[in-house]
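Assemble and predict.
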Amino acid sequence: MKQVTRRQVLGPLAIAAGSCVLSSCLSKRVVSSSDGITGQDVPWPYEELDADATAARAYDGYRQGHCMYGAFVPVVSQLAERRGEPYSSFPVGMMRYGAGGAGGSGSLCGALNGSAALIGLFARNEDETKLLVDELFLWYEQTELPVYEPAKPVVAGQMRKSVPNSILCHVSVTMWCRASGYKISSKQQKERCARLTADTAKKTVEILNANFAGRFSSVHDFEQDVKTCKSCHTKGSEKSNTRGKMRCGTCHFSLPAEHP
Amino acid sequence: MKQVTRRQVLGPLAIAAGSCVLSSCLSKRVVSSSDGITGQDVPWPYEELDADATAARAYDGYRQGHCMYGAFVPVVSQLAERRGEPYSSFPVGMMRYGAGGAGGSGSLCGALNGSAALIGLFARNEDETKLLVDELFLWYEQTELPVYEPAKPVVAGQMRKSVPNSILCHVSVTMWCRASGYKISSKQQKERCARLTADTAKKTVEILNANFAGRFSSVHDFEQDVKTCKSCHTKGSEKSNTRGKMRCGTCHFSLPAEHP
């Protein structure tokens, strides 16, 4: 009964989703039949989208619901316009929680959190999710942003760029404030984050398009200093005492003198 | 047409959701009618849940889909079992992306990310979201965890506790590895994170229960050292050059000598 319902809703789309054929979609139910979840679990079928149109929607979306919402909604809304359910029933407003690094905490950049959530919605397994999230996060950490120039900017003018050097909102925003001279929560800082949300949404669609067309390959890798740290500290190394893939020196900027 | 569909699905529940009466639910549509989103946007009605039963489900959920999934699914699945739609159609498997601080990056703890997503789903406005997320995140940062003791532990035995001192997976896990002597990705570390996921899910339900019964008030506040840092660096202060609410000293552990 579950499968019939799912086929009715997702059948035509599954064929359109490149390598996400129906059988592979159906094989990924991750919850038991006793948990009350009877609808369409992941992966939801993905269709190629226009990256520039997505960026424009994300820029506008930032003003409606901040960074995570701004990055997440454009993809779901475009698929909803084309295909209706199940996309049209996603409670997109929930993604407002990710603003300012989740509830304003300054942790994971909301544009990245929303984009990673999209990857979680469409990816066919955990390895694929990690592969695509890795590429997105490393791109963000290492790229001068924002690049996006809106057709109708809320705050006009040339935008100072900076390399976030971190996937954390707190660091990313501080780095930009330092580079630009603007204060936190200024209209210029919000404009920077709106444009960065557009950049991140665009990159995410480029990654998803490539992945589901079977032509994705990672472009970004850890910086050399991160590789050096990991050689002693990551899983399976001598110390095996830390986890994560964030750039180390952004927080560990002043290691004790006795560190080798 | 939208409202009729929404009333049909959510009408009975909205009455059961304490102060989330139907009119307030309907007033919170955050997307325009041209975006293809036609289903039930936030807030979804919340009903009081048993916190201990939620913890037990979260402990099991961790083994099925890691930390973010483990924290998110128990609440949605219990409401789906009671009420069916729209809960039963939420694509819960997407929440696997939050594992290990999102794609293994070590940023926001997945149990917190999943719990904050729940708050985003049920809260009635952005101020409420921030208020509840603040309480949850500060509780996590300042509390010796894990406390939860499973009836049927995957890894038996007394569990060493530690104060995470951070909402970041990278720091939280490293602090525990340092306190316990166990290595990263050991079966003991995974057991610790499974129990911590249970603790976080339980706390989230306690917060949601209190909030929708009209008896929520914040218990946790910033540590004194954070307040001192914020007096110069946060929005509206002299420098206004950082944003966030994370404990400062966890990363800024060795400030330059010239810092006042």
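Chain A touches chain B through 89 residues (CB under 8 Å).
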